[in-house]
Specification:
This protein is an alpha+beta fold and about 70 residues long. It has one domain. The protein contains three helices and three strands, in the order αβααββ. The longest helix has 10 residues.
Amino acid sequence: MSKYNALWEYVQKNGSSSMKLFFPEIHDIAGIEIDHSFLKYKKELTQYGYQVGKISLKEQIVIFNRIG
């Protein structure tokens, strides 16, 4: 079980083709801060039908896009 499973499930249940979440929202959903390991874990998201489209440290956002 990944430390980001709660986030992946949230994104999948949302069901939209694209969604933007701010770092504090991700913290509320996943219960953890975004850190450098997110780059490694983001690959797991494809199992849920999504991918990370953009990560902006400046804006503190992550954009998720549905695959296909």
